[in-house]
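dude i think i finally got it to work??
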Amino acid sequence: MSRPAETATPMDALLAILDLEKLEENLFRGRSPQVGWQRVFGGQVIGQALVAAQRTVDEGRYVHSLHAYFMRPGDPSVPIIYEVDRIRDGSSFATRWVVAIQHGKAIFSMSASFQYDEDGFDHQFEMPKVAMPETLPGEREFREKFLVHAPEAIRRYWERPRPIEIRPVSLEHYFSRDKLQPTQDVWVKAVGTVPDERHLQAAVLAYLSDMTLLDTSLYAHGTSVFDRNLQVASLDHAMWFHRPSKMDDWLLYTQDSPSAHGARGMTRGSLFDRSGVLIASVAQEGLIRKKATE
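look at this
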C-alpha cells in the first residue's frame, strides 16, 4: 500500500517516478512530477532510462558506466516512452541502448554497460579536505538568512521541495558576480529513505549527478544558471559507477570545469561518501549561450 500523500517525502515522490510502467518487452513508460517546470529535469530522464535498462539485464549485473545525449527538451505534461535495445549479453558485460521518446521524437539516448561483481586492482584519488556537512547551514537556515534579498530565480530554486538536499561548502558564487575559480564542493543527501537495493541506489545517484554541474562552468565568467540572459542546458552526460553506495548519508560532490568554448562548458565531478570512498565519476558538457538581444 502506498504511503498517504501527507506523509510522503520528496524521496518517496522520486522513487515513484523511477518506478516505470512496463508496456511490453523492452518498452517502458515514465511520468514527470507536475510541479510547474517548463521542461523535464535531465537527471530524471537519466535515472528513468537507467531503470529501464536495468530491468532488461540478468540478476547480479550492475551498471558500471553510462553515456547519454540530450537531444530535445522533455515535456513534463506527457509521459516519456523508454525503448531498450539489448545490444549484447556477454559472459562478463551486458550492453544496453535506451531511447526516450515524446511526441513521436527522440528526446534522449543513452548507452549503458553492466557487469557482474569481480575482484581486481583497487585504487582511488583522495577526497578533498572540506568542511563537513554538519558545520554548514542547512537549506532552512540558508533560506532564512540568505534568500531574503536573493534574485527571484534563486529563491524559487531553493524554496522548492526536492528529494536531494544540497549544502555547498562555499556560498560565495551564489551572491558574487566576481570571476571565480571554476570549482566547487557540494554535499548532497537523499531527503528520505532510499531502499537497500543496488539498482535503485544507482538510479538515484544518476538522478542527483545532474545537479549543480553546469553551474561550475559559469563561475569563471561571473554568472550563474540563474542569469536570465543565458540559455543553459545539458548536452551530454557520462557517468562511471566505481563502488556501490547505500545513499543513507551525505556524499561530497567535488567539481571542476577545465574548459568553456564555442558556447559549451565542460565539467567533471567526483562523488565521495563521508569516509572518503570514491563512489562515482561524472563528466558533462552543457550549452552556455548568451541569448540574442534586440
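The longest strand covers residues 278-290.
im so relieved honestly
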